[in-house]
Amino acid sequence: MVSPLLAKAAPLGREIVNVTPERAGWTHVGFRAVRLAAGETETVVTATRELCLVVLTGTVTVTVDGQTYEKLGTRTSVFEEVSPAAVYVPGGKTVVVRADTDAELGLCTAPAGDTPHAVRVIDPATMRRSVRGQGTNTRYVCDVLPHDDPTAAHLLVVEVLTPASHSSSYPPHKHDIEQPPVETLLEETYYHRLNPPQGFAFQRVYTDDRSLDEACAVENHDVVMVPRGYHPVTAPHGYDLYYLNVMAGPNRFWVFKNDPAHEWMLKTA
User: Fold this and answer.
1) Cα 60 to Cα 36, 37, 55, 144, distances in angstroms
2) Does the predicted TM-score (pTM) go above 0.90?
3) Are 21 and 225 in contact (CB under 8 A)?
4) Of 43, 55, 60, 42, whose CA–CA distance to 157 is shortest?
């Protein structure tokens, strides 16, 4: 039986996966991934939601209310050590994306909020890249739209590359209680990619009282929804794992709590 937290990808067609707040049973995060062949277009009306369009692969031209931004995106694989092109679009806009080459897009959304924000092309060169963990807990992070970037109202977007045989989002942590500065409430999606693509990985989502305890075997292009609880990920031998995280909550601030049962490893590292 497929976990209710796992959104399986469509192997063919334009729409790869689509997680709406209604489908997830929450309030803030929306995520959709689409494939475009060269020359195809995709139109998005943001309405009451804000959008961070991430060019996962390929090159596209983006037009927002008549203003055009050409030739965005340079990489052919999400596993390249290259930051993605991205465009932030506030609510009330019409976005047209034309694929200059075959392309894959991540459409990350959240409520637009009451404060006006401007359209912004996020320069890949400005994205903060970092290394987290050590040993088989090492992973490589690219902050596309972090909480200390004032561009957005609610959205946070980050890419993580986890080498084969490594763990990620580990030790297990959670962010499901609005209690800053100790912890903040953020819904989250994980959009998974595997290299080679026939691979798989594992993600567990669980709470302290185990009222939620789901283990998901994820394949290429699948999405895991994290409504609450801890959510570690592991990549088995032979398969590198990429994921695109989308987070949003009542406040745009990321503070997490580690699972006390596993926090010891940070103290001995």
Assistant:
1) 9, 10, 8, 17
2) yes
3) no
4) 55
- 69 close to 85: Cβ distance less than 8 angstroms: no
> CB within 8 A of 1, min separation 6: which ones?
none
Computed on alpha carbons and rounded to an integer, the radius of gyration of the chain in Å comes to 18
Nearest residue to 155 via CA among 89, 212, 94, 97:
89
The two tokens of residue 266 are 């940070």
DSSP category for residue 8: P
Tokens of 109: 């959304």
Residues 267, 187: Cα–Cα separation, whole Å:
28
pLDDT digits 0-9 by tens, 6-59: 999 999 999 999 999 999 999 999 999 999 999 999 999 999 999 999 999 999
Task: With beta carbons less than 8 A apart as the criterion, state whether 144 and 127 touch.
Answer: yes
Closest CA to 240 of 190, 199, 191: 199
At position 198, the amino acid (one-letter code) is Q
49-85 pLDDT tens trace: 999 999 999 999 999 999 999 999 999 999 999 999 9
B/e letters for 252-266, b = 16+ CB within 10 Å, e = fewer, are bbbbebbbeeeeeee
Q: How many CA atoms, within 13 angstroms, populate the side-chain half-sphere of residue 78?
A: 30
Which spans in the chain are helix H? 21-24, 264-268
